[in-house]
What we know:
Layout (H helix, E strand, L loop, with lengths): L1 E11 L5 E11 L3 E5 L6 H8 L7 E6 L2 E2 L5 H10 E4 L3 H4 L6 H12 L13 H11 L16 H13 L5 E5 L7 H18 L2 E6 L2 H7 L2 E6 L2 E7 L10 H8 L2
Parallel strand pairs: 3-8, 3-9, 6-7, 7-8
Antiparallel strand pairs: 1-2, 1-4, 4-5, 9-10
Amino acid sequence: MKLLSVKHLTKSYKGQKTAVDNLSLELNQGECLGLVGESGCGKSTLARCLLRIEPISGGSIYFKDQAIENLNERKLQPFRQKMQIVFQNPSAALNPKLKIKDSLIDPYEQYHKKLQLQHFSYTSKEAYVKQLLEAVELPEKLAHQYPHELSGGQRQRVTIARAISIEPELIVLDEPTASLDVISQGAVLSLLTELRQTLNLSYLFISHDLAAVAQMSQRIMVMKDGKIVDQFSLDHLFSDERHDYTKELISIF
């Protein structure tokens, strides 16, 4: 089943080149779709447009066959619960003045009247936070700490816990391991794979790192200068039919 469908999406900024140029994609339920390309090619702009964090200049965005590109903020609210994002920099994503437990509980308090949780249960704030920390393999004691007291890998796990806390259907992962050391990168990628299977999540995995994309994804799209120049299933990664730019990326893979 198609979860997300994007048709001819364009994003332009006044006086600048077009950041996303007539781009189309489809993401299936339960799938991890990888999007790879060099820094500055428009990947993060696309992510913000898909989630309606930024307005688009043209095209259509469908979530479960419902057009969302023109919805106002009130009508977008049900979709915001179903679509979450994990950013590259966990330090910037977490409020430094809030303890971890308060950052984790905030999405639930925002959406709780509309939530029907299947994987987590809310019997108390403490029990709910404990479940979320366990889901991302963090000790319960971290709930009472502040972001600056955690390592980079721990902070990124907290942002992942917050993203899954309201049980979305789609998570956009925008360079989620780029700021981590190699050991933490591998651990976070393994965790994300496990969560996708356990919670029946769908991912759009965005990265400049082809190795990480290949590890995570069933299908891969290659972006260059705002356009999709290649797309293929993982088992066709090394095919002679690949675009020249894809072959360049593979050569440093």
